[in-house]
Amino acid sequence: MTKLKRPISFDEQIKKLEGRGLIIEDEERAKFILSNLNYYRFTAYLLPFKLDDDNYAKGTSFKKIYNIYMFDKSLRLLLMDIVGTVEISFRTYIAYTLAMKYGAYGYTDKRNFINEDYHNKFLLNLELEKQRNSSKLFIMHHNEIYEGRLPIWVATEIMPFGMLSKLYSNLLPGEKTFIKNNFCKVNVGLVNSWLQSLTHLRNECAHYGRVYNSLFPVVKIMKKHREYDFDNRKVFIHIVVIKYLVADQKNWNDFFIS
């Protein structure tokens, strides 16, 4: 087993970066940033500038890399907001569709979904979410008044985005078509794939992961976009996807000009 690297002090971190050719304009400022940012997180933004000999490309500066980090931080916050808009819309679409077709509690019936095993796992996970959210007033209310039975429009409010995307994928074709015809005018096969892709992006953003120059699971591209040289593992294609899933054009415009 390879021995782990020994921890190094902030002063040693500065010297290591300088030794690899990074220009550090203000050492005290750089030390302060590293003491609040984490050397490992900071150096992830240096990867595109790293040469084969482990040194950094000529002219690479600490200030430049920190500016990229701050840009990534701003982008991450913007993406969290706009993906949240998509997520809330799909909570509404799914809840409304199932409620209108099967009633408040019809979502618990396996016959109303494609895959019985997925549905059973969904119900088990929903129980876990009810336990995790047991201190919320609306869950306490339904526990006291309705013996813990949640109507679909309440249940969707405690589902993580990943769970919601799996619920959508398990809807019967008629329900997916209803959503397409009435709410989201996107091919249901694309929506299946895109919600899963946005779940990965959302989780990365929520855990303060790096979005800039990161690779994500492959995103399915619309036929009309295949002529463009999109990298279907980068964040830009996720932004393209979001454009088609945002219902309110004003929300998209606000995101786009931010």
What does this structure look like?
With 258 residues, the protein is mainly alpha-helical. It is 60% helix and 0% strand. The chain folds into two domains: 10-60, no CATH class; 72-257, no CATH class. The mean pLDDT is 95.
User: How many angstroms separate the termini?
Assistant: 48 Å
In N-to-C order, the SSE pattern is HHHHHHHHHHHH
- Biggest beta sheet summary: none
Number of strands: 0
Rounded radius of gyration (Å): 23 Å
Q: What integer is the average pLDDT?
A: 95
Class per helix and strand makeup = mainly alpha
Question: Oligomer, anyone?
Answer: single chain
Shape, principal axes of CA atoms: elongated
What share of the residues does DSSP label as strand, in percent? under 5%
Topology:
Blueprint: H1 10-19, H2 27-37, H3 39-44, H4 62-102, H5 116-132, H6 137-145, H7 152-155, H8 161-169, H9 173-182, H10 188-206, H11 235-245, H12 249-257
Helix pairs in contact: 1-2, 4-8, 4-10, 8-10, 10-11
Organism: Clostridium algifaecis
Protein name: Abortive infection bacteriophage resistance protein
Pfam family, one: Abi_2
